[in-house]
């Protein structure tokens, strides 16, 4: 699962027993060598879809980590890109690899909790990749309200969401075991580390977005293929802030 430059088992164990913020601070220098970074196989199709939806002037990468989503925004935004994350260590890695180039919009790296964003309605586009498992279902409406508050009218909140693993498949049992282990860990250990893979269900997410004031549309990402029943393996959620 991990490249040779990735974290050791001991480092992962220390991270798993830390808070979310502290855990990612520790993991940050080796994060891009782990499977936790969103792969280019997902980032590239999303970038292509955004190019068809754009252009955009300013973009926000929510829970940006070391900046994989920031790189996507740079391809579709003309003026300004902002990455926001709660982990100072992840932001430091993003800044360290940030190399300005002609024609690339300015990038700002901001430390903040996604549940309390320090911006006004200044963005045309917000994206997020792989971070929603860090928020409990009851936190989603507040999180989505925060995103809505920083988008201009007509601004879009866009993110990919994979189809759930089929019951009984190896992926199903893997995710079930991981979430169960995290629940046991959080029941026995403090501080908690919230990361659950099976709580971000498409139907519930779309309902929360609609209640928050978004108009929701789903786009297929054909590059990621289809399941045996013909349904997409991954959809792109495009939530537009209503006026």
TrEMBL record:
<keyword id="KW-0489">Methyltransferase</keyword>
<dbReference type="GO" id="GO:0032259">
    <property type="term" value="P:methylation"/>
</dbReference>
<feature type="domain" description="Methyltransferase">
    <location>
        <begin position="60"/>
        <end position="155"/>
    </location>
</feature>
<dbReference type="InterPro" id="IPR041698">
    <property type="entry name" value="Methyltransf_25"/>
</dbReference>
<dbReference type="Pfam" id="PF13649">
    <property type="entry name" value="Methyltransf_25"/>
</dbReference>
<protein>
    <submittedName>
        <fullName>Class I SAM-dependent methyltransferase</fullName>
    </submittedName>
</protein>
<dbReference type="GO" id="GO:0008168">
    <property type="term" value="F:methyltransferase activity"/>
</dbReference>
<dbReference type="InterPro" id="IPR029063">
    <property type="entry name" value="SAM-dependent_MTases_sf"/>
</dbReference>
<keyword id="KW-0808">Transferase</keyword>
């Amino acid at each position: 699962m991990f490249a040779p430059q990735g974290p050791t088992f001991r480092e992962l164990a220390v991270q798993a027993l830390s808070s979310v913020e502290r855990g990612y601070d520790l993991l940050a220098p080796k994060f891009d060598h782990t499977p936790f970074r969103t792969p280019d196989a997902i980032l590239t199709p999303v970038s292509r879809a955004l190019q068809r939806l754009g252009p955009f002037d300013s973009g926000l990468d929510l829970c940006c980590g070391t900046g994989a989503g920031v790189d996507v925004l740079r391809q579709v935004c003309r003026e300004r890109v902002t990455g926001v994350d709660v982990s100072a260590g992840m932001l430091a890695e993003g800044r360290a690899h940030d190399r300005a180039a002609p024609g690339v919009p300015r990038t700002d790296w901001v430390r903040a909790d996604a549940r309390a964003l320090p911006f006004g309605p200044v963005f045309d586009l917000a994206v997020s990749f792989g971070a929603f498992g860090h928020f409990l279902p009851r936190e989603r409406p507040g999180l989505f309200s925060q995103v809505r508050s920083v988008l201009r009218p007509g601004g879009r909140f866009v993110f990919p969401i994979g189809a759930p693993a089929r019951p009984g498949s190896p992926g199903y049992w893997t995710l079930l075991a991981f979430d169960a282990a995290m629940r046991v860990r959080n029941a026995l250990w403090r501080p908690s580390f919230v990361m659950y893979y099976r709580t971000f269900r498409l139907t519930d997410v779309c309902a929360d977005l609609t209640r928050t004031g978004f108009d929701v549309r789903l786009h297929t990402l054909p590059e990621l293929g289809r399941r045996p029943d013909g349904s997409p393996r991954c959809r792109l959620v495009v939530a537009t802030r209503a006026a």
